[in-house]
Every structure is written in structure tokens, then in C-alpha cells.
Amino acid sequence: MKIWPSMRFAAVSATLIALSQGSSPALAKDCSLLDTQTAMNICAGENFKAADGALNAVYAKLLNKISPKARPKLQQAQRSWIGYRDAQCAFDTLGTIDGSIHGMMLAQCLTDLTEQQTKRLQHQLTCQEGDVSCGGQ
Predict the structure, then answer these.
(1) Rounded to whole angstroms, how far apart are CA atoms 40 and 63?
(2) How many C-beta neighbours within 10 Å does residue 101 have?
(3) 92: how many CB neighbours lie within 10 A of its CB?
(4) SS3 of the chain: helix, strand, coil, percent, to 5
(5) N or C terminus of the chain with fewer C-beta within 10 Å?
(6) Distances (CA, A) of 113 to 99, 107, 119, 128
(7) How far apart are alpha carbons 137 and 129 in whole angstroms?
(8) Sign, Cα dihedral of 30, 86, 122, 133
(9) What residues does each domain of the chain span?
(10) 5-125: what fold?
(11) Distance separating alpha carbons of residues 12 and 6, to the nearest angstrom
């Protein structure tokens, strides 16, 4: 499957933007060098799967660290955040909904927001005593 040069430029640009906005180059594969849209879609999906796995690991550690009283609040917050992430990415990618690039754009959005949430939870996990920006201690 061939993609138009303008679509390839958009794909490369989107990848670079995602990387500059907090995606972890150590975890993320560089999908922009692939030569088919299908390969880029698969690569972006794999990046999201890795980001989701990292988020789940940090979430599980935090859930085990915080007080029993705080656990339901974290679980509620995480469920709400997942709903927000999915809705935000559905909105952000409306312009590509009918195109072959849509899967990649959606996966990149999901990856970006997931990595941001992982950092947020990691901060909670590594809070120092007395840090008022931390909950559930």
C-alpha cells in the first residue's frame, strides 16, 4: 500500500511532535522510518501497548503503596482518566477518521496521554514525606 507524500509528511510530523511532547524515546520505536502506512500503524500500536504496560506497572505499585483508604480514590481517578484519554483521542483524531493514517494517529495520541499519566503516577509513587502534592500516603 502506497501513501501520498503529504500523508507521509503528516505521519513523520506527528511522530516528531509526539516525541517532543513527552513520549519516551527509550520505550518508543521510531515509526517514521517505515515505508508503508500499515507498518507505521502496527508500530504505533506496539508503542501504545508498551506505554500502557508501563502505566499498569506504575499504577499497580502505587496501588500497593498507598493507604487502604486512598485505594478507592486512585481506582476511581484512573477509571475516569481512561475515559478522558479515550474521549480526548477520539476527538483529536476526528480529522483522520476515514483515512489509513487514523490507526497510527489514534495510537500516538493514546501513547502520549498514557505516558503523561505514567509520569503523574510515578511522581505519586516517589513522593517524599511532607510533599503536599502527594495523596494517599
Answers:
(1) 34
(2) 22
(3) 16
(4) 70, 0, 30
(5) N
(6) 22, 10, 10, 25
(7) 8
(8) positive
(9) 5-125
(10) Substrate Binding Domain Of Dnak; Chain:A; Domain 2 (1.20.1270)
(11) 10
